[in-house]
Design a protein that fits this description.
165 residues, alpha/beta, Rossmann fold, two-stranded parallel sheet, 7 helices, 6 strands, binds S-adenosylmethionine
């Protein structure tokens, strides 16, 4: 996904990537029964070692597609630790792909306010995992935001566009 974003958006932007590089935290009840069952089934076909990709794998992929000259900052660690203290400047695009309630909420709380008016927030797991869906609804409600969830393209990618008021 990182390589694809860099390919499409080009080299005249700064990129910030946040990941523990050690897989998903433990799902909680708020994440829904499907999430709990998925994480409990360690031999399931979509388990992929609890969605783990190493930083080395990430760097090799970026190098493989020739994007090493892009300005890119890697924020390694749990979102709780990295997101609040990160310095990104204004964001044109925020893509949230942390699956669970807490992970999604931490990213929304810390990063959505940095998205410029007219900017886009893609929420990969909205409508897939209950926890992510709930976090989006809770965030929008608590902050009294009027953005609606839109869908884009053949795969109906969920996103919202930041409004001025
Ligand atoms: C479904 S994978 C998506 C990975 C990547 N965005 C992609 O499209 O290939 C979810 C990723 O979120 C990371 N993640 C989830 N919750 C996290 C948290 N609280 N702190 C740090 N990383 C987290 C996991 O390590 C995992 O790499």
């Amino acid at each position: 996904m990182a390589a694809g974003l860099m390919e499409i958006l080009g080299s005249d932007r700064c990129y910030h990537f946040f990941d523990s590089f050690s897989g998903l935290p433990e799902a909680r009840v708020i994440d829904g029964e499907a999430a709990l069952l998925w994480q409990a089934n360690k031999s399931g076909p979509t388990y992929f070692e609890n969605c783990t990709a190493s930083e080395d794998e990430f760097r090799k992929t970026i190098a493989f597609v020739g994007k090493t000259s892009h300005a890119c900052t890697i924020h390694r660690g749990l979102f709780n630790d990295t997101v609040p203290k990160s310095e990104t400047g204004a964001l044109a695009l925020l893509r949230v792909d942390g699956d669970w309630y807490d992970s999604t909420m931490t990213c929304l709380e810390g990063l959505l306010p940095r998205v410029a008016i007219g900017g886009v927030v893609i929420i990969d797991d909205y409508g897939t995992w209950d926890g992510c869906t709930r976090a989006v609804h809770d965030y929008l409600a608590v902050h009294k935001r009027a953005e609606s969830i839109e869908r884009y393209g053949r795969s109906a990618v969920p996103y919202l566009r930041i409004r001025g008021t």
